Amino acid sequence: MSERDSDLVLAVETSCDETAAAVVAGGRTILSSVVSSQVELHERFGGVVPEIAGRAHVEQVVPVVARALAEAGFDGAGRPLPGAGSDRGIGVVAATSGPGLVGALLVGVSFAKALALAWGAAFVGVNHLEGHLYASFLEDPEMALPVVVLLVSGGHTLLVAMHAPGAYEVLGQTVDDAAGEAFDKVARFLDLGYPGGPAVERAARSGDPRSVTLPRPMLDEGLDMSFSGLKTAVVQLVTRQPDLSTPDVAASFQEAVVDVLVHKVLAGARLSGARGICLAGGVAANTRLRERVSEVAHAACLPVYLPSRAMCTDNAAMIAAAGHVRLAADGPSPMDTGAEPSARFPERA
Ligand code: KG4
Ligand code: ZN
Fold it and tell me: N or C: which end of the chain has fewer CB within 10 A?
């Protein structure tokens, strides 16, 4: 019988509205990555419905994990398939333990713990935000540390200096709404659809980003950020002037968010002496943000790492990579690890 290898990690991600599983070798090589999106289920409600998300994860987790195992060359017991080229079995099962929706997280955590027990593998609970940091790391093996990572997702906006795998320092964060949340709320207000970020980006393509004057909150106030006032400014403006063109409003709003994010990430890179700039999280899929961050990084002679769009949004490969780091630093997680819906970013300098 094949031995189990603790460098082979199967990860399960069910924190929000994607059911995902991936197998990653050595924390860096993606052997498979499967994502099943629930966007169509939540679309008609204009946002994620937690109860529906939990049920869909229950339905999807077995087929998604089975596909990830098969595509990576493993059978349902995490053992190498005949002729797969490896004689080692999967030694670690990781799952996102938080932050996220409690009913959604519980599906992945319970499933991963059960698999680990049945296989005799280690279990590791992973912080979802820490997972996002590893997107660039997985795609750019040459990345030199330290880097500054702008993590912009639907629930969080953090500016983190990553000194080494597992060693992070939070430089700044939003004091109210996350950047993605602002995109989602503005999209809902402008009736652009769900998910909001891509909808605003699409509308903005035919708009003029200088047509509407909007604030750039907290621009010169350290590295923290604020997006709630900007969203309110859009609502007040459009309520006062209902004839404004929606593409113009969308483009001006997007430009204001991007101006703030670009300013902060560059300031964070300077302050922390970073050797590169990384984007992570769903909002990092935004084309205008990617263009503008590339421009400023280029001007500052810093390499920029832009994960593919699939790696920016929720996936399990990033959870596997973070799980690999976590296991090396702390060992396996206890079997009574539960869902931690409000888990904070694990700052460890
Ligand atoms: O990282 P993610 O997939 O899930 C969370 O952990 O939150 O991020 C989802 C967020 C949503 O707010 C979505 O509207 C935003 O990322 N997003 C975008 C774009 N694509 C996704 N925001 C702006 N432009 C985009 N192209
Ligand atoms: Zn996420």
Answer: N
